[in-house]
Design goal:
The complex is a heterodimer.
Chain A lengths: L1 H27 L30 H34 L4 H15 L3 H12 L10 E3 L3 E4 L2 E4 L1 E4 L3 H29 L6 H19 L3 E4 L2 E3 L2 E3 L2 E3 L1 H28 L2 H9 L4 H31 L11 H13 L2 H30 L7
Antiparallel strand pairs in A: 1-2, 2-3, 3-8, 4-5, 6-7
Helix pairs in contact in A: 2-3, 2-7, 2-10, 3-7, 4-7, 5-6, 7-9, 8-9, 9-11, 10-11
Chain B lengths: L17 H9 L4 H27 L20 H13 L7 H19 L6 H21 L15 H27 L4 H16 L2 H15 L8 H26 L3 H9 L4 H16 L1 H14 L11 H8 L10 H37 L1
């Protein structure tokens, strides 16, 4: 009790001392305090915005733009890293010696080199070294690689796209129904019904119907060189490409190891028991091995996703306009209110982390073994 | 009458032994396997050829400035690394004083190598040397200002020196801090526990870069007028706090794995909380989580590169800085520099991870035999 009171007392004293210091420092340096600056005019441009933004927008808008850019690169990075990581993890378990060792070399190289170095390598070493737009490397005269980024044709939907949307929705619904029927029959008398052939036929038929009714559902806006830069198409800025590439390649190496450990953790007996019950190999994998492996894979996978999101803050090194770069960087230098700005930035990351780990803990609790304390 | 002699056994069929059988089993087991092998083989040949061509065949090895690296087909520009090597290791540390850095590196190795070998004795004396004597010695040697050594300002430190100083300080500070936080998190005192949980979750929830921003921009605001730390020290504090939060979670894993009986047995022997923790619980718990601790060290080592964002010149920072040197501006300078820095970091991290695997095996045999 006494110890606790002492700790608490020391903490309160320290806080009072720190707050007093901050106040006197701010007064002396003539720095404003409070969050009023958020509604002021920002006055600087941002080279990638997912929502409307101009120099006249407020600092609050800057914050939103930065947050959206962070989320964009994180979500895409998570998807790419997961796909590549699972592929590498399975390759690490392959009985094929060459595939196995290739995956091992990849993992050992990419996870033992600092991420920041990898980001800079891709940005300053590779993408910035590409030729200028006039000498751009072109892939089929539709995609252009230059030091201004990657220009790809823009996909524009026509009215016919609705037919295709309806066709996809209908096939999706039929798939769900087929799966349900197959599951019920499996539970009822153990007979396995193949659902892929009827599903493929129905999906093809509905897409053919949509094509008959609507024709081609999209048109391309092909980029073309006009003067010193490209017109048309979508330009993906090199900062984004470098950051996305580095984040996914780096995190994939970690995910590969997690997946490998997860699959290895399922004992051989489980696979043998499944085959003794007469389950075909892929069914055994889907119904017996993967559900048990996931239980081991999910918790560390979650922390890798969180790491990727937090690591996207390294964007500041190559000036990709994420939240740290435009808010804790540019805004901080313009406004000078370090305390508020760093506080807001940290709170946003903290919220993202806590939300993700909360969601993942719920999922984890659902798939955990009954009776096992996690 | 001839006696019966058994015929010598025939050798195993060629298809089950030797190289051919090995390739059949491991590379061409079935159609899919063969396809995968061919695909992987093409990929490997392509990558190896590209790397070999770039790093050796098309590379320049000698020269004094950029003109050496402007061939028609130019690979790596190794003379750049050669010319800047001293800078990459010591930063702007004065030439005449570099022997001090060498001495610090050497005396560190002398303490570290026997420490890492499990069969060498005198661990306690070694520990005292590494944690008690060595930090003070290193500080005096590097910083100077006493014993007749000239003061070298920390703004002149750079390169691998700064990387190692940040990493080692982080490692040395984060372990005890992390242990204290982990103990606090499992403490029976609600206020201490709440504080530790708050600290750990906050630092684990934010990126290191914001912590470094906080250390470099906000920390001066928290201190009274006139009191100020060196920028390097501010970054060290940030890195140490950040990694101690991660270390705390690793140590907590070890603490949770200790059976309750150990606590009860210690209590039955009449040991108090601190004695139980120090003599019974921690030795077992730390041994269990050595791989996790080493992984945290590897992460910390890679994270030291982030200090370049707040304006310190670690190895990556100093390589980056020298790209601006106009006398070495070639299209290949960047890639050469990054490959060099990457190789150095890789060497350290890979060595640490191999060591962790070695320790894991070493310790696990101990436990299975008991």
């Amino acid at each position: 009790m006494l110890l606790q009171a002492l700790v608490l007392g020391a903490l309160v004293l320290a806080m009072v001392w720190l707050v007093a210091n901050v106040q006197s420092n701010l007064e002396r340096q003539n720095i404003n305090s409070g969050f009023g600056f958020l509604s002021e005019r920002a006055g600087f441009g941002i080279n990638q915005t997912l929502i409307d933004y101009s120099e006249d927008s407020s600092f609050a808008r800057v914050l939103t733009v930065g947050l959206l850019n962070t989320l964009l690169v994180s979500v895409l990075g998570i998807i790419l890293a997961t796909i590549l990581g699972f592929a590498l993890g399975v390759a690490r378990l392959s009985s094929n010696w060459l595939v196995n060792k290739t995956a091992m070399v990849y993992v050992e190289i990419f996870r033992n080199v600092p991420l920041l170095l990898q980001i800079m390598f891709w940005y300053f070493g590779v993408l910035r070294n590409l030729p200028s737009p006039r000498q751009a490397v072109s892939l089929g005269d539709a995609v252009f690689l230059s030091n201004r980024g990657i220009v790809v044709p823009a996909l524009e939907m026509t009215a016919a796209a609705w037919w295709y949307g309806a066709a996809l929705a209908a096939s999706g619904a039929i798939y769900v129904w087929l799966r349900r029927r197959a599951r019920l029959s499996r539970l009822a008398d153990g007979s396995l019904i193949s659902i892929w052939r009827p599903f493929a036929m129905i999906a093809l038929a509905s897409l053919a119907f949509a094509a008959m009714m609507g024709g081609v559902p999209f048109s391309f806006d092909i980029p073309a060189l006009k003067g010193f830069n490209f017109r048309g198409g979508i330009t993906v800025i090199p900062e984004f490409v470098a950051l996305l590439l580095a984040l996914s390649l780096y995190t994939a190496a970690f995910i590969a190891e997690i997946v490998r450990a997860g699959i290895q953790s399922v004992s051989k007996g489980q696979r043998e028991a499944a085959s003794a019950l007469g389950l075909p190999d892929n069914t055994a994998l889907r119904l017996v091995v993967i559900p048990q492996a996931l239980r081991v894979i999910i918790p560390p996978l979650t922390s890798q996703y969180l790491n990727l999101t937090k690591n996207s803050s390294l964007a500041v090194a190559i000036a990709y306009p994420d939240i740290v770069s435009v808010f804790a960087g540019t805004t901080l230098t313009q406004v000078g209110q370090a305390v508020e700005i760093i506080f807001i930035t940290m709170m946003i990351y903290l919220t993202l982390s806590l939300l993700t780990s909360f969601a993942m803990n719920r999922y984890n609790a659902r798939i955990a073994l009954v009776g096992q304390k996690s | 009458m001839s006696s019966w002699t058994p015929t010598a056994p025939r050798p195993a069929p060629a298809s089950t032994v030797g190289f051919v059988a090995w390739t059949r089993a491991n590379l061409f087991a079935n159609k899919l396997d063969t396809a995968l092998t061919l695909l992987a083989f093409t990929l490997v040949v392509y990558v190896v050829e590209a790397i070999f061509g770039w790093a050796i065949i098309d590379a320049s090895f000698t020269g004094d400035d950029r003109t050496a690296c402007l061939k028609e087909v130019q690979g790596a520009c190794w003379p750049f690394i050669e010319a800047k090597f001293g800078q990459f290791i010591y930063g702007r540390y004065p030439d005449a004083e570099r022997w001090r850095v060498d001495l610090v590196f050497l005396s560190g190795l002398i303490g570290l190598i026997p420490m890492l070998m499990p069969n060498v004795g005198f661990k306690r004396a070694n520990m005292i040397y590494l944690l008690g004597f060595y930090p003070i010695f290193a500080f005096i040697m590097l910083n100077g200002g006493m014993l007749g050594l000239a003061t070298v300002d920390t703004t002149d430190w750079g390169g691998l020196l700064v990387t190692l100083v940040v990493a080692i300080t982080g490692i040395v500070a984060s372990l005890p801090l992390g242990i204290l936080l982990a103990l606090g998190r499992r403490s029976d005192l609600p206020i201490v526990r709440a504080l530790c949980i708050g600290f750990i979750e906050i630092f684990r929830g934010v990126p290191l870069i914001t912590v470094l921003f906080m250390a470099s921009v906000m920390l001066p605001l928290f201190l009274p007028d006139g009191v100020n730390f060196d920028k390097l020290v501010r970054c060290l504090i940030g890195v140490a706090l950040f990694s101690s939060a991660y270390m705390a979670e690793v140590v907590r894993g070890g603490l949770q794995a200790i059976p309750k009986g150990q606590y009860e047995a210690a209590a039955a022997l009449g040991l108090g909380y601190w004695k139980t923790t120090r003599l019974i619980i921690l030795p077992q718990a730390l041994k269990l989580v050595i791989p996790g601790i080493v992984n945290t060290f590897i992460g910390l080592f890679k994270d030291t590169t982030l200090v370049l964002i707040v304006g310190l010149f670690d190895l990556l920072g100093i390589v980056q800085l020298h790209f601006t040197d106009a006398s070495w501006a070639t299209p290949e300078t960047h890639i050469t520099g990054y490959v060099f820095a990457g190789a150095v970091f890789w060497l350290f991290c890979f060595a640490m991870s191999r060591y962790s695997i070695f320790m894991e095996n070493h310790l696990s045999t101990d436990r299975t035999s008991s």
